Amino acid sequence: MPKGRNKQLIANRNEALCRRWYYWTEMERLRFDDALKILSEREFFISEQRVLAIIREYSRMNPDSDIKPKPKVKVPRLTSAQLRLFAGE
Q1: For 32-47, how does the pLDDT look when each residue is reduced to its tens digit (9 = 90+)?
Q2: What is the pTM of this model?
Q3: How far apart (Å, rounded) are the C-alpha atoms in residues 70 and 8?
Q4: Three-state SS for 23?
């Protein structure tokens, strides 16, 4: 018997996590961050970053599934000169 974690158990956990992700985000219509917190702290006891990594990997490996992670939102960086344009001076 090989040492280490059982690959089938990990695959089962990842699939269950993704099903729960779908439940919280699509059926219960929870916000992205709220669903992430529930999965991380109450259901699977792993970090939020790991939950997102699992969901992204699962959606890449199963493109026909309805489980899709939210895209990363990039916030534009504003300079002080750009912010002065909005100042009501």
Answers
A1: 899 999 999 999 999 9
A2: 0.70
A3: 26
A4: helix
